[in-house]
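Sequence in, structure out. Go.
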Amino acid sequence: MDSIGFVCDPDQSVFRSVGQRLAARGFEVEFLPPTEPIAPADVDALSALVNCRLHPAAFAALRYADVAGIPTWNDFTVTAALSARLVALETLEAVGCSVPSVRAEPAGGYEAGRPYPWDGPVRLGDPSPFYVEQVRRGAVDHRYYAVDDGRETHMRALALRNSPAEEEPLVEQADVDVSLAARVRGVLDKFDARAIAVDFTRGVDGEFYAVRATPTPSFLGARMDRRVADSVASLTTIGP
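Output:
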């Protein structure tokens, strides 16, 4: 029986659903602790490894799996590259996205940047290695999810309301902009990745800016559970 390991909290609603779908197809599913070291023997027992959390503890497992020839959903290279904020911004710009500017010294209209998401928030007054232009001008951002199921790439866009008005949802489905979707697909193809999420915000000039990319998308609110399950299954001998 093919066994798939998820480096993920088993209570994460999307991947819990994905795990259930895979179990119904005959897979053995195991959830591995996302913030604790994972033993090589535990990785050796898997047919595929899916990392759902950006944390240094998961990186060693991904690297080991890549060296051992165990399929990973997104490998060590894409996970390490896009977990670095400056590398992610450079990658987004390389595929044609407008991105906020970055500078080494603080200035008006710039916010302190976090090199890696596990560093925690930058406290007011603390120095930062770099500062990122604050381009957001509206209350709504857009998150694009992309997942490759081994046959085709599926895309979904969500509107994220930063200051939701009364009775308005925090997250809702949005129309996919073809030009933005093409850029998201460009990032996916650049790293030969299986899944990615990119956040866009509209600037004062009306243009969309890509502000973040992640190789560990949560897919919360995207209603793509079946597509994600197909993508993960395609890594193994059973297939989708």
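Check: Residues 102-133 form one domain. Helices lie at 13-24, 40-44, 56-68, 76-83, 85-94, 178-191, 225-233.
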